Amino acid sequence: MTLTEAIEEVISITKRADKRTEIISNINKAILYFTLKASFAKDLVETSIPFSATDYAQSIDLTALAVPLTRFRKWKYLRPTSRRYYLNFRDPTQVVGPNGVVQTDTFYMAGDTLIVALSQLDSTCEVGYYTYPAILSEAGVTAHWMLTMCPWMVTERAASQTFKSIGDDVSATFYERSSNELFLTARADFEDQVADFAR
Questions:
Q1: Which domain holds residue 77?
Q2: Tens digits of per-residue pLDDT, 30-46?
C-alpha cells in the first residue's frame, strides 16, 4: 500500500475526505507509534563507525560522524571489528565498579555522544542500530514497510485518531482495538528475533 492508498483507506473508513491533511499526520503518527513499541528487524541498519586507534576510553559525537547514522534511534549492538564479542551496555552510574575499576568493553549514551571503554584498541566498530521512520508525504517519501507488510495496522490506528479528533469515541475505540490486535500479530512476525546483545 502506498501513502495515497493508505489515505484513501482511512477516508473510506471515516468518510472524512475533508480531513486529508490530518489523516496524513495520523498515518505518520501511527507508524512512529508502532516503531517505538517494538524493535523491528526491518528498522535495523548495520554499518561501521570509526574509533580512535590510540584511545581505550572514547567519546564519539554521533552528529559529527563523517558518514552519519540515518535517523538513529537506539543501539542493537556494537562490536569492535577485530573482536568476536560485543560491547556490553552499562548504566553510566555503573561504569566504575565497586572496587574503583572502570568496567571495560562497555558503552552508554549521553545525549548524542557514545561513550565506550575498551580493553584493547581498535580503529573501527561494527554497529547495528534501529532507526526512526522517515516522515511520509504525498510529495516526498510515499512508502514504508509497515504500509506494505501490515497496512491495516497503520490505517486503522490513523482512522481511530481521526475519529477521536471529531468526537466519535465509539468508532475511535473500535479501530484502536483493532489496530492494536493487528500490531500484536505483526510484532510476533516482524520483531527482531536475534538476541539483543546491547542489553
A1: 44-131
A2: 999 999 999 999 999 99
Q: Provide the 8-state DSSP code for 18.
A: G
pTM of the model: 0.90
Helix (H, G, I), strand (E, B) or coil at 45: strand
- Report helix, strand or coil for 80: strand
Spatial distance between the Cα atoms of 154 and 10, rounded to a whole number of angstroms: 9
With a CB cutoff of 8 Å and minimum separation 6, the contacts of 64 are none
Q: How far apart are CA 161 and CA 120, in angstroms?
A: 51
The answer on 119 and 97 residing in a single domain is yes
What is the CA 123 to chain-centroid distance, rounded?
A: 27
CB 78 within 8 A of CB 147: no
Residue 185 lies in a domain: yes
